[in-house]
Give the backbone structure.
Amino acid sequence: MKKIITLLAIAGLLTLQSCTTSGSFENDLIPVAKSEVFEVTTSFNYTNNYSRLITLNPPIYSSDIVLVYRLTGITPQGSDIWKLLPETHYFADGTLDFGYDYDYSSTDVSVFMVGNNLQTVSTNYRLNQVLRIVITPASFSKAIDKNNINAVMSALNVDKNQIQKIDL
């Protein structure tokens, strides 16, 4: 019995030792998702139905998660203030005034406004809106505080010069 176990152990070691990879095994078989950040400035109005379709290249994999942030202001120290979508704004009585939301497919992200009377929303909220789109593998994003864009960028090891600007 000991000889059989020893023989199987040696055969197993030889089999495993003969397996080698070129170092790109993962790249050859499966697309390796990497995090990317895009920035776009857009306006929402009646001519575009208060929505914007943003085409992305490379494709978004089904295992990716997409986060969209809107620049909402600047701190007194000059730092950007970003808010994760969906974002809602309410009237004083608690009813919905307007908001922003998004959805995505494998090739694009659609960002749109929601509300009952969007043409009455202040131009401060409709025109020249700066959006950041973050694409990251879903498994990686579980450990990130998604509400804090600085934490997301830091965890993904992406700095400002790596943000890809999209012109619409």
